[in-house]
Amino acid sequence: MSQIVLDMLKERFGAAILETHSQVGDDTAVVEPSQWKAVCAFLRSDPALDFDMPIDLCGVDYPNRVPRTEVVMHLYSISKGHRVRLKARVGDEDMDGAEIDSVTSIWAGMNWLEREVFDMSGVRFRGHPDLRRILMYPEFVGHPLQKTYAADRTQPLIPYRTEDEAGMPIQKIEPFGPDEGMPFGRARILPAEEN
Amino acid sequence: MGDVTRSLTLDGSEQGFATTRTDALLGWARKYSLFAYPFVTACCGMEFMALTSPRFDLARFGAEAPRFSPRQSDLLWVVGTISQRQGPVLKRVYEQMMDPKYVMAFGTCASSGGFYDNYTTVPGIDKIIPTDVYIPGCPPRPEAVLDGLMLLQDKIARNERRPGVVKPRFDPVQDAHGLVQLRRSATDARDLLPELKEREANADREP
Lengths: 195, 207
Prior knowledge:
Strand order of the largest sheet of chain B: 1-2-3-4-5
Shape of chain B: flat
Strand order of the largest sheet of chain A: 1-2-5-4-3
Number of strands of chain B: 5
Order of helices and strands of chain A: HEEHEEEEHEH
Low-confidence stretches of chain A: 181-195
Low-confidence stretches of chain B: none
Largest sheet of chain B: 5 strands, parallel
Largest interface: A-B, 28 and 31 residues
Largest sheet of chain A: 5 strands, mixed
Helix content of chain A: 10-25%
Structural class of chain B: alpha/beta
Number of helices of chain B: 7
Number of helices of chain A: 4
Radius of gyration of chain A: 22 Å
Shape of chain A: elongated
Strand content of chain B: 5-15%
Oligomer: heterodimer
Distance between the termini of chain A: 55 Å
Mean pLDDT of chain A: 84
């Protein structure tokens, strides 16, 4: 549908477009992270492309890959009616060097989305005016959507009541089991003697 | 009361006196004048609205008056998922309430965290504040909530502070007898309900 966008990107940036693919009308370009901002500025300013609406920005963690994290951006052009998806792969196994240029100077609306990706996936955006957590609280340690973040690890803001304080067992009481509501969820690993 | 030498009779004479214990009298007075503070955070709030509307009519139980200041209320309805960020707020609201104060955990999320078993959610408000009655359900039906409210009133009347859980009237697995079952295939339904087989056999016999 917008193959022309991919063609123009390849013509303009050459080797900085690592790969492209098109599937069921979605066109994707994987971009060299160092060229991220230049590609975005081109997409925004070229009159034939005119991507004036940032749709979404998110991070995807692939723990077995290097680079490990993909930053995915969806763009839409209201005037031209076409879309494109950009991806950039950043960060090594330990998320060192997971940095990419901020595009808030191109689309002001990317401000909070970049904060969300920083908060959830741990990608740092160079040049962002206010790179704070946006969903989690400042005391939170780590980035919960990284696959290395334990699925059931919580970081309570206030300490939980102890059983001494409550004067009764406050584990999930009947009929609420430890896996309440999660019949399809994580399998609890029982100790060996109980298996 | 008048004449204190005679005990109260029920013959309509309006004479005499009645004896009771102070705590029983206070419990009786408290249980029908619950002032609610609705701490509504999620989709269970829809069922809470239904509950307070005339169809299910919370007013029948003397618990319909909402007070949006914790200092004026004595029943904290925690309706919906409590995230870790809301935990301190909930605890502060509870601490600002005057004694005696009661807490209802409305729905599975407030009771145990529900299926949000992850970094975001408090796994049950009893990890933060004492809880009087748990109402399971996602969301619970208004009837279940009314059951919970009656359970709370019973607890108040008895000065009982142990937590209680609303139990289903019947267990759909245990008490399957006589209930229609989801038919996954024609043979399955007959296996589940032997009566069906008998009925079919009888139908064959009848002309």
